[in-house]
């Protein structure tokens, strides 16, 4: 699938899923409003009947108010009975009428005097298994001659009750949400695999080019050497070319093998003096230092400087960092290698003042096969494995890797290991 086709497919799929989610949200909202309206109508109807029954209970059939029920808020109702009140009878009537109207929500009720509007009695009726029927404190109801009362009903869990009536809608909404999450994850995997495929393709192309160039040089040199009557100087020159290209091939093969071994080979950990390892590494670079006019400054201040690591892999990791510092610097590179101990950890900094790395690529610099994009031309050859190897092997040995870089000003790569006293 081409990138353009994949993008079109992704955009259309995202729009479709967003549309589906919006439609589902709209209908769920409509269903909730309908259920809420139905709840209100049933409560109002039940409370009207309770009001009428209380008036009949008081033998005052002609004192029924025109509109006794008022919805004060979404879950609180008052009933202006304006008459004598028997709390026991009121609770019985409320339970009976709410049951007849299929209202199984927990509720609180309170009886108020009509003069000062202060609560005189309260109760709580529980319909679920996980609530306390004694939630409301019941006190003795004061019987005052000529005192009229009204009552209020409060549904503390009304929202949850309404949602419970929409189980099918809730299940379908959760199902759609899961589909969206699954699709999002699938897109993430697809793009990740596509990116990995592109990186692997670039790696294979780069690997082929890197191997083909020295092989072509070797073949040309052998053709020249196979011709008779060659001078000794010319033979030595072409033999030197063959050796140089063969060493280049060996180095490239070693780079690939190092990465493979970093995930498979058992580490041979031993106590090492990091200063001695660094000095030996710099000595190995001496021919290149002289040839390319490289200036390396050593500031080895770590005390103590003993760490536990695999000598071969530690040397390879430091070699990769130093090699990168040289390759990604301008002519006559300036390199600084520093060590110090901070909080019982040895810190090794390899800093250059080269081209640096842009912020947008820094988060992926340690990824396998990743190379900072420079179009189809790479002035610095490589496979995108060096820094991946450094991070993998350092963490396998109990260390950490960090990096700071400013584009155009250089980079500083840091290895951190626990110090051995």
**Category from helices, strands and their pairing:** alpha+beta
Query: How far is it from the N-terminal to the C-terminal residue, by CA?
Result: 57 Å
Average pLDDT reading = 82
Contiguous uncertain segments of 5+ residues: none
Largest sheet, spatial ordering of strands? 1-2-5-3-4
Estimate the global geometry from the Cα principal axes: elongated
| Count of DSSP H/I helices | 10
Which radius of gyration do the C-alpha atoms yield?
41 Å
Could you estimate the helical fraction of the residues in percent? 40-55%
Helix-strand string? HEEHEEEHHHEHHEEHEEHHEE
Strand-residue proportion: 15-25%
Give the strand tally: 12
- Largest β-sheet summary: 5 strands, antiparallel
Total domain units: 3
This entry's quaternary arrangement is: single chain
């Amino acid at each position: 699938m081409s990138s353009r086709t994949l993008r079109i497919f992704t955009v259309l799929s995202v729009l479709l899923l967003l549309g589906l989610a919006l439609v589902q949200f709209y209908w769920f909202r409509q269903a909730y409003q309908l259920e809420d309206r139905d709840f209100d109508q049933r409560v109002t109807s039940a409370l009207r009947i309770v009001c009428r029954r209380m008036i009949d209970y008081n033998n005052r059939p002609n004192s029924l108010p025109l509109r006794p029920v008022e919805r004060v808020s979404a879950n609180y109702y008052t009933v202006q009975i304006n008459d004598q009140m028997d709390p026991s009878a009121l609770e019985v009537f409320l339970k009976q009428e709410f049951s007849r109207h299929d209202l199984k929500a927990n509720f609180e009720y309170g009886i108020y005097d009509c003069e000062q509007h202060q609560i005189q009695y309260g109760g709580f009726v529980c319909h679920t298994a996980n609530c306390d029927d004694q939630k409301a404190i019941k006190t003795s109801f004061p019987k005052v001659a000529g005192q009229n009362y009204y009552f209020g009903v409060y549904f503390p869990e009304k929202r949850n009750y309404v949602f419970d009536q929409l189980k099918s809608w809730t299940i379908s909404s959760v199902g759609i949400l899961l589909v969206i999450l699954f699709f999002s994850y699938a897109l993430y995997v697809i793009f990740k695999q596509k990116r990995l495929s592109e990186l692997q393709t670039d790696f294979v192309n780069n690997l082929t080019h890197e191997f083909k160039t020295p092989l072509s040089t070797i073949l040309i040199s052998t053709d020249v050497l196979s011709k008779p009557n060659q001078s000794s100087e010319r033979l030595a020159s072409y033999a030197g070319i063959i050796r140089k290209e063969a060493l280049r091939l060996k180095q490239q093969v070693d780079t690939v093998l190092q990465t493979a071994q970093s995930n498979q080979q058992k580490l041979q950990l031993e106590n090492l003096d990091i200063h001695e390892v660094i000095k030996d590494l710099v000595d190995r670079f001496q021919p290149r230092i002289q040839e390319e006019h490289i200036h390396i400054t050593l500031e080895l201040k770590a005390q103590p400087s003993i760490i536990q690591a695999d000598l071969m892999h530690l040397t390879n990791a430091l070699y990769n960092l130093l090699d990168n510092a040289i390759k990604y610097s301008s002519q006559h590179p300036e390199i600084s290698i520093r060590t110090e101990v901070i909080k019982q950890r040895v810190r090794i900094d390899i800093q250059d003042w080269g081209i640096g790395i842009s912020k947008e690529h820094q988060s992926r610099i340690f990824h396998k096969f990743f190379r900072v994009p420079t179009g189809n031309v790479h002035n610095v050859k490589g496979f995108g494995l060096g820094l991946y190897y450094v991070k993998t092997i350092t963490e396998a040995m109990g260390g950490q890797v960090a990096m700071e870089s400013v584009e155009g000003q250089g980079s500083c790569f840091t290895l951190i290991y626990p110090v051995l006293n």
